[in-house]
Design goal:
151 residues; mainly alpha; 5% strand
Length: 151
């Protein structure tokens, strides 16, 4: 039982996950600082409020439904996603692309999914059959329905 636990802990994906969680927690502070100190004040300057918590409050039988709180959470999520994409993902992709170009590495073309190829062939065959014409016979050039051979 101890050896099984040791093997589980020492697997590469467990260690990678642990490192990712630690780096993610540290990086979250950077992203939150960007959103809270730069992006939200910019929105506040434009809209007049740093959040939408008091927007669209509906009182129903003495209970407040605060749709603005949901709107604030959605805006914060979109800002965080934009910050991560534009500050991390896009520059990293550009850096990898430049490195690959410099090293002469061409992007690999994705292999066609066999199911997609088969479905495309079936579609093309059905389309040819639907128009009332079959593919011409290579030898004679005549159109014949499948299964009927000319003598």
């Amino acid at each position: 039982m101890i050896n099984g636990f040791k093997e589980f802990i020492m697997k590469g994906n467990v260690m990678d996950l642990a490192v990712a969680v630690i780096i993610g927690a540290a990086f979250a502070k950077i992203v939150n600082a960007l959103v809270e100190s730069v992006l939200m004040p910019a929105i506040s300057a434009i809209v007049g409020s740093p959040n939408f918590d008091s927007f669209a409050v509906l009182t129903l039988r003495g209970n407040e439904l605060k749709f603005g709180v949901l709107l604030t959470a959605i805006v914060n999520f979109l800002l965080i996603a934009a910050a991560v994409y534009f500050c991390l993902v896009m520059p990293m992709n550009k850096m990898i692309e430049r490195r690959n170009r410099r090293l002469g590495i061409e992007p690999a073309e994705e292999a066609a999914d066999p199911n997609v190829v088969l479905l495309t062939e079936i579609r093309d065959a059905l389309t040819a059959g639907h128009t009332g014409t079959a593919a011409p016979d290579a030898a004679t050039g005549r159109h014949e329905a499948p299964g009927n051979s000319a003598v």
